[in-house]
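Bump. Still looking for DDE transposase structure tokens.
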Amino acid sequence: MSGRQPCKSDLSDERWALIEPVIASWKAQHPSVSGHRGAYEMREIVNALLYQFRTGCQWDCLPHDLPPAGAVKYYFYKWRDDGTGQTIHDLLRWQVRESRGRKADPSLVVPDAQSLHAATGVLAGTTGRDAAKKVPGRKRGLAVDVLGLVIAVVVPAASAHDNAAGIALLEKVAADTDTVHKALVDQGFKTAVIDHGKKVGIDVEVVERNPAASGFVPQPIRWRVEQVNGILMLHPRLVRDCEHRPASAGSGVYWAISDRMSRMLTATSTPTWRGA
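Sorry for the wait, here they are.
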């Protein structure tokens, strides 16, 4: 770590060992035209990404002993656009599932959508207003498995109906894996999502809320997606949508959950606000 003081968000040697092969392969496939190997260690680039999502700081407010914002953004955008960030996430997810005695890919997912306020400066053309929840910004749609691991992320405008988010999630799930055959959704998703599920080979079941229950009552299996939304709140960069492009917001989710899964695989605890 170039002799700097470590941050709580830094990768340990064990966690870096899980990610490094993908990064090393990427570097080998993207050599510099001049033959220069680069001024910054790839581990430090990833540490800077994890620091930003874990603290919520602006790019230009990264600590001076981490690589500069320009270099970190360069790799973040490159890995966002070519799918490297999601590849790292998916490889870790497969390892976590197999370590829990499950097959690499799930057969059931739990989709849900959450509206988030957009930060100042986010492009208006990519946002909208959730009329029901009175939230101006974007929606974050997640599809998770029964372990609470993310299978798909979509980021439409908050004005998009839950059906639109649900359909986009089913499309991404079906495109990324052919093993999912069942999805459990809440009553916010309507017939359009069920019909689209049939088109992509996924049986969509609406989980009815007990009319006698009052307040928030966790529903079997479906509570996992609420758990993931809570985990993402430990990353202030994801508490509201700060990204100019929806694709960056989705990539941020993959990095945050990769951080969590690398800790699961190495039995490392996640820092909490109490320890900050």
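The mean pLDDT is 91.

Edit: fixed formatting.
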